[in-house]
Amino acid sequence: MNKLNIKIIFQMMGFLLIFNGLFMFVSSAISWIYKDGASQGIFFAGTLTIIIGLLFRFVTKGFKKEIKKREGYIVVTLGWIFMSLSGSLPYLFTESIPSFTNAFFETISGYTTTGASILEDIESMPKGILFWRSTTHWIGGMGIIVLTIAVLPLLGIGGMQLFAAEAPGPSADKLHPRITDTAKRLWYIYFGFTITEAVLLKLAGMSVFDAVNHAMSTLSTGGFSTKNASVAYWNDQPAIQYIIIIFMFLAGTNFVLSYYAFKGKISKVLHDEEFKTYFFNILGISLIVGLVIYFKANVSQIPSEIQLIAHPMVLGEFESSLRHGLFQVASVITTTGFVTADFTIWTPFLTLIFFFLMFFGASAGSTAGGVKFVRHIIMIKNGFLEFKRSIHPSAIIPVRYNNRTVQQDIVFNIIAFFILYLLVFAVGALVFGLLGLDYVTSLGGSASSLGNVGPAFGKLSPVNNFNSLPILGKWWSSFLMLLGRLELFTVMILLTPYFWKSNKF
Description:
Blueprint: H1 6-34, H2 39-59, H3 69-87, H4 89-93, H5 100-111, H6 127-155, H7 178-204, H8 208-219, H9 238-251, H10 255-262, H11 266-270, H12 273-297, H13 317-333, H14 348-357, H15 373-391, E1 400-401, E2 404-405, H16 408-434, H17 439-451, H18 471-485, H19 489-492, H20 497-500
Antiparallel strand pairs: 1-2
């Protein structure tokens, strides 16, 4: 077995650290503009990060420019870990979050676009730090797009090969210059959507700072807000929430389809199975949730000591019910995690619905976390075809997706992924229980962390945060976030002995 190309791994880490440090300089500039006192600390954090990055690149110069599968797995996993470690420095250097555990948790929650926070009073934070929080989301979102379109199909991860053929990118056998072109085009769309949403939110009544931060959090499906009440702060401004709903939906759509839409190939979008399933699920579930809120939840009659979020019904109770239903369904399915209401007090039926939604995920090739609709589609189709195969055992009955036959190994890969996902969820909940959390909080915390959702249930409900977790609980949640964000296999394969066996360093 060929030895690992260590030099290219650390070259890549060096590049990522330099990239990270430059973004810290932007946050430092924002801090200086607002004169919040954090500019110097963020600048020093950025400087140190860039120095370490340059050191990595200097020490490993003269490397062989060849990256194979094994190096690919390590680069992807270490990339997120190194970014999270360096991304903690602005919090530590400014003493905004003095605890390393809390700083790391907040940072990895940002990069994995989970949006789970330990901050008790977000609005007291320096503007530069709040911008850095949103930046970690935005960087993570960009990284995920490139990862899922260009890298994971090459590594054969979790059935991502399914849309490799659709992507205007690489073939599955070698790295290709078209990866760069693909990434560039998708980043343009990502950046364009972010700017557009920021402008619309400003026009709808947000400040420039809030608009930019919420746009960055929306497009990355992250969910960090600049307000303690999250988007519920604007519950009296429906226009703001409708804008965020639209862009949450776009962020949860395969960015390759957005590319096709801009190219005028609308039929490709409308005929895509995953997109249709994603769209109609959000629409149908939102309608059910909205109607149950209106007829059963009696939001206006819930005492204020239980319902901590105000619900001014500006356009009437019916519109308010449908809007909050649509917003929270879109927020959980796309794993954004913005909050306009505490969905855990909307009847047990709706609480269960939102729990199940945490296992949906949005589209493959989007910035959303979770299982993804494409996998659910393939598994359901394969499940129903088993009835036919039972009756006709000799017949070859393949699963078809977008009018193409899905290879059997991809079907097996997806089934394996889902089984492993449920197993990790169960173990995740058990560990939380072992650490002293009640079963509702344990189940919700595991599902939310693994699915990169953000708000959960129990002590981690939409009106609470993750600061109540014990120290070990925060590290365990961070690990689950990383696992879920990088499609399980990418991280877990590094924990297997046969990955390292017979490797000469």
